[in-house]
Amino acid sequence: MSERLLALSEIPETGVTSVDTSIGRLAVGLSDGTPFAISPICRHLRGDLAKGHVADDGCVECPLHAARFDVKSGAMTRGPQGAFKPVAGLFKNTVGRMTLKSYPVVERDGILFLEA
Ligand code: FES
């Protein structure tokens, strides 16, 4: 089964946006030119990753405390920053071990599709 997500042209400059799908809301975007779809809730304090951005390293960065997630594996690659930075490693090694769910996405003629 294939479900239309959005056109590449609809992805904002942040590199990620929210898309409602038949399996729930997902954070969908492009990382280094490769499309991705992940569960949108940060493992730290439930920030909305669809409102974050794709960082220089290709990871999605949470808009609340800047934790980062690998869009392929769903793993937290960096714990929360700011006031949480001293315990970022603790978060990364506890709640951060619960990876985000990642879904297969393909691009056809400028449109992203969720493949199930
Ligand atoms: S809620 Fe995402 S880093 Fe804090």
Compact description:
The chain is mainly β and 116 residues long.
Task: Write structural notes for this entry.
This protein has 116 residues and is mainly beta. It has one domain: 3-layer Sandwich (Rieske Iron-sulfur Protein), CATH 2.102.10.10. Helices cover 5% and strands 39% of the residues. It has one helix and eleven strands, in the order ββββββββαβββ. The chain has one helix spanning 88-93; strands at 2-7, 16-21, 24-31, 34-38, 53-54, 60-61, 68-69, 76-78, 102-103, 105-108, 111-115. The strands form three sheets. It has a four-stranded antiparallel sheet with strand order 2-3-4-9, with no helix packed on it. The chain has a four-stranded antiparallel sheet with strand order 5-6-7-8. A hairpin with a 6-residue loop joins strand 6 (60-61) and strand 7. It is elongated and about 45 Å long. The site of FE2/S2 (inorganic) cluster has 9 residues, from loops.
